[in-house]
C-alpha cells in the first residue's frame, strides 16, 4: 500500500501550466528522487505535497487521509501532513547554537528538558555533529551547516522527509560524502524520503526509485538500474547516463515469423520478434557506451570505424569512433591505448540495445523476463 498518492495534479502560475497531470505513488520507506532539468516542475511538486503551494486540480492522499483536493479547494495545512522539509539554503538561525537550532523544532510540543536533550543529541549524533552542539552556524562549514539542517528536520521524527537539492551548495567532494551519509541515514531511520535533484549521479546512487520529470510531466518512475538499462522514453535515455547514450537512426525489417532485422550504422542485427512489442519501420536505436565492444581486428557482426578521440579518465576511457556519418561513444575500463585516426571494429552487446518509436519517443522493446527478475535484486 502506498503511503503517498498524487493523482492528476495540475498547477498553473498565471497562464503558465507548470504541472501537467502528475500522478505518482510513493511506498512507505522509499527514497524517491524527483529528477529532471531545471524548470521541469520538481520543486513545485514537492511544495504542493508539503502544502506550501496549492494545485488547481488533483488529489493528494497521505497515510490514507485526503490532505488536498484542488477542485474542492481543500488544502490541509503543512503541519497536518506529517512531513518535514530541508532546503538547499540551510536557513539556520544565526543567533542560536547548533543545539538550539535543532531543539527549536521540538519546542511547544510539551516535552520535558531531559527528553528534548536526548532527542537533540541523538539527531546530532546520527549526523556526526554532536561535537559542534555549542557552536553557532557561522562557526561551521557549509557541509556541517547542512547536517544541522537535516538534524533539525529529523528530530521531530517525521513520517516523511522532503529534501530540495540539499547538497547543491556543497563542493564536489563534500557532496559525494554527504550522498553516502544520507543513504546511511535513510537505511537507519527507514523514513520515507523524497529528494529533488537535477544531478543524475546523485539520483542513481541514493534512490530506491526515481521519477523523471520533463516539462511538467513525469516520463518514468522506476528503480534506478531499470531506468538506466531500460529507459521508457528517449528523453529519459538522453538524460540518464554519463557519458551519454548513443542514438542511431535505424530501420527494421521483418525477416521471418520469429525474427526481424535492424539496420543502422552498427550494421545488421537479427533479433527475436518476442523481444519487441511491435515492429516499426523507422526507429531510434540506443546503446550505452559500455555496451559497444571494440576490437582491433574484424569480428563476426562488427563494423569498422575510425578513432576520433581518446579520453582516459583514470579508471575508464571514453573513445569517440566515427562510423560512416555517425560518431559513437564507447567506454572501456582501464586505460585505452587506441591511436587517433586508427581503424577499429565495433559491435553492440545485443542485451544493451533499446529501440524507440521515432514519433512518440516511447520504448518498443520489452524487458526480458530474466532481466526483470535480476533487476529486482537492486531494491
Ligand atoms: N512562484 C512562481 N511563480 C511563477 N512561476 C513559477 C513560480 N515557481 C516556479 N515557477 C515556474 O514553474 C516552473 C517549474 O518550476 P520548478 O521550480 O518547480 O522547477 P524545478 O524542476 O524544481 O527547477 P530547478 O531545478 O531549477 O529548481 C518553472 O518554469 C518556473 O519558472
From TrEMBL:
Keywords for the protein's UniProt record, in alphabetical order: ATP-binding, Cell membrane, Membrane, Nucleotide-binding, Sugar transport, Translocase, Transport
Occurrences of domain ABC transporter (ranges): 4-240
GO MF term list: ATP binding
Domain of life: Bacteria
Keyword Lipid metabolism: no
Official protein name in the record: Multiple sugar transport system ATP-binding protein
Native organism: Alkalicoccobacillus murimartini
